[in-house]
Amino acid sequence: MSKSENAALATGEDQFDDQYNLLDLVAFIRRNLGILLGAALIGGVLGWAIAFALPAKWEANALIRVGQLGFVGIIANPIEPPLQLVDRIKNTSFQNDVLRSLGVDTGEDDSDAKLFRDTLKVKLEKSELINLTLRGMSPDEAKLNMSAVVNELKAIHLRMSVPTTHRWHQELALIESELKHAKTEAEQLAKSLGAGAALLNDRNFPQAALLSNILIAREGELRSFRDRKLMLEEQLSPERTFATDVLGRVQVSTDPVFPKKSLFAVAGLIMGLLLGVLLSILRPVASRA
User: Fold this and answer.
1) 3-state class (DSSP) for residue 191
2) Of 24, 36, 92, 249, which cross-links 276 as Cys (Cβ 3.0–4.6 Å)?
3) pTM for the whole thing?
């Protein structure tokens, strides 16, 4: 027999085996259809019932915009790098601070603390916004817990940004004072030069030249003070410097996100069907025994 004939014979045997196995499967389903359908139905009903028995949970979502300290002409500096903020939120110490602010026991055995830690999820979006999700036993609880997380972040970033913004405000106040003083002095010099211009002679010419040079210097200082003042005002503007806060508002799911009754019903149906298959396989063995 040639190799091609052997290959054709082997292919035919494989097709026959596949067909035989398929017929066996169809026959198995027909013999045990009642058990399979009954077990699947019971499993689906049990899964649905378990979903109703489990306590419902709602999910709050917040999109956080990290605050920044604006520098004119330079890329704005976030108060805290977004990746570092993600790690901060995941840190147990931060989570314990939030729990204490809520009046919740931080112990490992406390159910509220465990739910908080297990469901607090943080994700850094491509736009460098921070996406937070958190679950609670009611819509109000989920929103309250999320608000506590946001408030803790805002308080931390406020402490981090205050020294810089305070220094800018101090510098701005000092520049405004210096600007006022330099402006008054420049006006007085201009008046002196104007009054002496009519009496200008060889004797008072050096004094007039000195006053003129001083006036030019004061005008240069005035321009410098004005430029610095404008820059500080731009840095402190709400578009350049702002606090960490929620973009929009905290959103809470209208319906519970857990348990999903349809998923529990499908999972129960599959488990019941598997159990039905097992019972159908074991039944002939038990009857022979």
Assistant:
1) helix
2) 36
3) 0.71
